[in-house]
Amino acid sequence: MAGMFIGEYTFKVDSKGRTSIPALFRRELEEGDPKWTGGQRPKFFIVYGNASKKFLEVYTAEAFTKLSNDILALPRGTKKRRMLERLVLGMSHPTEVDGDGRLVLPQKLREKIELEKEAYFIGAGETFEIWKPETFEAENAATMETWLEELPDDFDPLTLLSDNEG
Fold it and tell me: Is residue 56 within a helix (H) or strand (E), and if so which, with residue range?
């Protein structure tokens, strides 16, 4: 497995849906594509299926293969497997980094997250997310406010690492 996607970045999106991919994210995409060699374009997958998600989730080729194998290991015909087949396998977009280090987002994906002039990228460890910046700001503020209301003023987020409640 490659390293991790960390950090946050905002880039312009042109009328054709092209946006730069953060350089550190491109390195992780390269490392996460077992077939990639220098001079080639790394392949990766954008999962967009869950209608309640207001972002696109991006997987390296390696991480998506692992996720696919986990889904296919579930018993055939079960509701859980059928849901995951549709929401993940069926509603994903295989793509690659273009020659200029950009990502071309199809209109359908831009419309799903109402992406217009800018894309906000945020690392999530083994994946990264692409948001409309204003949507991320609103969602993140609401989520953090809800979480922090439950915690003491001197809360240290690293204490969550030893919390077994999730």
Answer: strand 56-60
